[in-house]
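Morning. Coffee machine broken again, so started the prediction first thing and wrote up yesterday's gels while waiting. Chain of 144 residues, entered below exactly as on the submission form.
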Amino acid sequence: LQWGIALQIFREIAKSKVQLDTTAFNATISACEKGSAWENALQLFSMMVQSMMESDSVTFNAAISACKSGDKWATALQLFRGMTQRDLKCDAISFNAGVSACGRSAEWQKALQLLGNMAQNEVEPSTISFSSAISACEQCAKWE
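Came back before lunch.
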């Protein structure tokens, strides 16, 4: 429950006079994502957007990754589009998180579409990219 401790520290900082910054949000969103606390991660992301705080690729990648554990593939894709709308470069982490989120939700076609989009965006697919896409197909018996 390390994410719980990170969230508690984040809340304590928020109560104090110390200004929360992108780094504090990113660290807490990442901790929640790693702890499968996707709801908390997405709430923090939403808080960041509402407070007009600047978000970066790390912010989006952590939020997209959090969508994996919550079967929130549509939210992952929405966040992915949000990155491009903000002119943030989608990297291998962004794509892999999106492919994994779609795969865990049995959205194998969306996962393969993201995998295909990597080349168009000049992002080199990795072993993780291909493994995530294969897992997506496996879940729906589309591996043949």
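Residues 57 and 124 are 17 Å apart (CA to CA). Going to sketch it on the whiteboard this afternoon.
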